[in-house]
Design brief:
Number of domains: 1
Helix content: 40-55%
Strand order of the largest sheet: 2-3-1-4-5
Mean pLDDT: 90
Low-confidence stretches: 220-226
Distance between the termini: 47 Å
CATH topology: Rossmann fold
Order of helices and strands: EHEHHHHHEHEHHEHHHEHHHE
Number of helices: 15
Number of strands: 7
Shape: globular
Structural class: alpha/beta
CATH superfamily: P-loop containing nucleotide triphosphate hydrolases
Length: 328
Amino acid sequence: MSLLIGGSGSTGSSLLRQRLNKHTQIFISNEWQLYCKPLLYEDWNKNKSKLFKRWIFGLRSSGIKQFTGLDQEAKEAQISIKKLLDKHTFTAFSKALYQQTYKLKEQDVWGDKTPANSYHFLDFLATFPKAKCLLTLRNPLDAIASMHRRGISIYLSTSIYLLNTAHGLASEQNPNIKHVKYEDLLDSPKEVLSHICTFLKLRFEPQMLAASTKTNQDEVTKLDSWQYDETQTVQKQAIRSFDKMTDEQKHKILSAVFSIHIKESWVKKHKLRHSNIAEIAASLHYDLPAISSINSKGLVKEMNYNKWQHTYKCYPLHHFNYPISING
């Protein structure tokens, strides 16, 4: 069985991956940037040779934060990947890759955790038989604040949360897609992980809750902006990144949340159910505080610059295909 994990950044997908990989029959790779390439789903045989190319000759990931090619962990396995490019389907290639590189058995669950995977849940389910998807979710204010503390601008953090989450929620009625809230994973880890195991038709294993040591010295399990190390025992913690921001930062985040929205043409094209974060928060039962005034001048300036960058670098989200707009 294959499993794809996606969602906005800073919604707990790294913690979830750490815990799932404690199960004896699960292995999830870390942000390969492989399953968020739309061209691989459209025509595998035509586009597979572009996996190791860069710039305009490479394969672009979906999302407003563009990535070309494969990420570091995948590069370490590129010898195996290149040997397997003779596979005639994306499915056969992936199955052989995980089984040969990580010595997985036929009955094991394999998959990948990359935020932009949420753009391609339906493509993945249509391509891989018996596949499942997990959409990671979190209070938008906390997720945006956490991304901003990691050095991502408020405009980009808000846009990433909005687009990744809206695309993931577009197919929320699909029985092969399960939602995992970060707050629930910390508050009731055994219950959440047990439900995921049932979803994957596996038995829950108690060691999924236990602390672990890093097997990869280069793997990040805690950043300065994180208030939780993923190798610790999962336990109840109240993590409110937004509350730890200054009043000025809070106002900037709220201004972005209430002014940034997805263009109507993009919503219709991709059959999205939500066009702004207020709608997403309401559907997920997250409360947003009121804001007396909105200052969007700086956001508009950054949006225009980001749009220009995408156009100059020949990214798919260029000036005429840019998904974000700002009120005011």
